[in-house]
Each structure stands twice: as C-alpha cells, then as structure tokens.
Automatic annotation (TrEMBL):
The lineage of its organism: Bacteria, Pseudomonadati, Bacteroidota, Cytophagia, Cytophagales. This is Aminotransferase class V-fold PLP-dependent enzyme. InterPro entries: Aminotrans_V_dom (IPR000192), PyrdxlP-dep_Trfase (IPR015424), PyrdxlP-dep_Trfase_major (IPR015421), PyrdxlP-dep_Trfase_small (IPR015422). It comes from the Bacteria. Transmembrane segments: none annotated. It holds the Pfam family Aminotran_5.
Amino acid sequence: MENISLKNQQTQFSLPDGIHYLNCATRAPLSKLAEQAGYDAVRRDTNPFGLRPDDFFRGAVRVRALFSELINNPDPDRIAIVPSVSYGMAVVARNLPHKPGIQAGQTIVLLESEFPSDVYAWERVSQEVGLTIKTVRMPDQFPKGPVWNERLLDAIGPDTALVLAPPVHWMYGVQFDLEAVGKRAREVGAWFAVDGTQAIGALPFDLAASQPDAVVCAGYKWLMGPYSLGLAYFGPAFDEGIPLEEGWMNRLDSNQFHRLMDYQPAYRPKAYRYNVGEQSHFIQMPMLEASLTQLLDWKPERIQAYTEDLMQHAWPALEQLGCFIEPVHGKQGRSHHLVGLWLPDYADPMAVQQALLAEKVAVSPRARALRIAPHLYNTPADVDALVGVLTDVLKR
C-alpha cells in the first residue's frame, strides 16, 4: 500500500459543497470516522454504569501506540497526553534549570517568527537561569531554506543549552533538516526540542533519525483530531524530571481505585509523570484514536505526494502574478502540505484574504504571506478557485 498513490478522500469528510478549505494548518476538519467516534463516545457517556478503573487508562494506551508508530518511536511509554503545545514546552522549560551542565550565559536557539507558544515558554526560565535567547533570522532572498538551515546550524555551539526547531515553519512551510540539527545539538550537549504540530501527520517524521529530547504536537491540525488534546514525546533526559502537575493518575498502581488512599510517591515510568490531569478524555480520545488510525492508513508520504500533485500547476500560475514561493529543495525546501505564498509588495494580505473568503476560499494570512494548506479532501476545483480569485485581485 505504501507505493500506491492516494486518491481524493473528499467523501471521508463532511465539508459542505462549494467550500474551498485550503486551511488545514489552522484547524483540520474532522473526518467522518472521527466524527462518528465522537458521537459514539457521547452516547457511552450518557450511561457511565459499569465503568471500570482500567477504562480511565485504556484509550490513552491505544493512542500512545498509534502516535508512536506515526513518528517511529519504539517506546509508547515515552508519550505523554498534553492539552497543548504550550503545556509540553512548559515541561521542557520547567526542567531546563536541572539540565546537567546548565549555567548562566548559555543560549536558547530559536527561529525568527516562531509560533508564540515556542517563544513565551522560555522567558521566565531565561531570567531565572541567566540564559540568552538567540534568534536565527530568516533570509531576505529566495530560496530561503538552505541559507536558513545553515544559519540555524551555525547558531548552535558549545554555549547552547537548548535548540528548538520544527520540521516545517508554521507560517512559511520552509523545512528544516532535523537530522542535521539533532546531530549538531548532541555534539555540543544541547537539548533539542521539536514542535511537530505543523508537520506530523502530513510529513514523514523519523524520531530515530533526528533523536530529539522532546517532541510536542497539538492534535487538531495535521493529526486531524479534536481541539485541546495533544501528544508529546519525552526522551531519557526527562525520565527523572519535574512534572507541571502532581496528578493521581500519573502514579504507580493508580488504576487500583480501592487503594488510592495508599498514597504512592513513585510515578509511572518515563513520560507518564507529564500527563495532564484528567487525561482520559472519554469523548476526545476515541476521536484522536480514529484520526490516527486513519492517518496510518493514508501515510504521511502519500499525503505529501497527493498535495504536491494537487498544487503543481497552481504555483507557476501564481508566480506569474508576482508572487513568490520557496522552491523544492529536499529537506531544506518547501513542504507540499503547507506553503507560504509571498504576495507582491503592493498587495494587502488581509484584503486578499477577504476577497478569497467572499468566494468561500479559506487560507490564512501570515505576515506578508498567505499560508496555503491543502489536504486529501481538496480537489482541483479548490485550487482553481484559489488561483481564480488571486488572479482577479492581483491583476487589478
């Protein structure tokens, strides 16, 4: 199945006719499979009679296994249930002062224009430990990817305590070679954290190749799941770390409800201590399980191939209008599921978005670019609608 091209999956979704939703990077529409899983979960919740202690844990066990398969993680016990990227990055920040060898004057390396949750997380710990934020500037010229990747690697040195990098920049779709970044971080003894939200599920991700210390991923974008539920990988560096919460479910033998008053000082192993409270998510967890199962069937590499083929004729047409896009350049060029389209200098991105919305075309303006994010439910008609509106607006 891996080598068989995917066909359009529009019938697997409930998007209304006439809507051109090229905006999965903002929020994914739930598939019919995930939608049904939610309905079934609500019906189960109307009658909790017969609920057993193990039922509080069982759904998360399945989701950990599915997510682990998606990212090539051999140990599902290293996956924590989190509500958001900010929560997962807060775990990293909470434990950074206890990193072996940490000292004042070291740096945290970030990319320019990173998502706010990946920036705000470090302000407090930087002040407490005396760290400096080093921001790697995006090149002005095209192509941006190779030079930006080179600048990132050059910024990582013996004084680096932590490196944060995504597989794909959340605004522009530029890829970063995480295998090279991880190798460089290990060479200098820095921790390496990844925000995989805008890639994992749609772009192949190999944990074993990049070897990050932490990977955090919101569930409502390319994992195609419900809002306020995410997943995080925490490597051996965090095995004896400090959690954000002291939840009862994170302790050993917490499924033995008749013994909950025998307070247990020991945590469940590995990443379990970092689970958010009320991690069972009886309604949302089955939905995420359904979406992950579907993604493993579709396969991220086939999603990349589908979106590449879908958009291949649009990019030259838009470049002729004076727009710019990052070229394809292996692990340092643009992705196919999320592409930043830089508009001509005279164009107002917000005004362009309003013109698109008037024709029921959904994309997201981000700084000087439109973020275009197709998926398997999109058809050539969606692409034609996008190109048609932009042609009309940019030729005025």
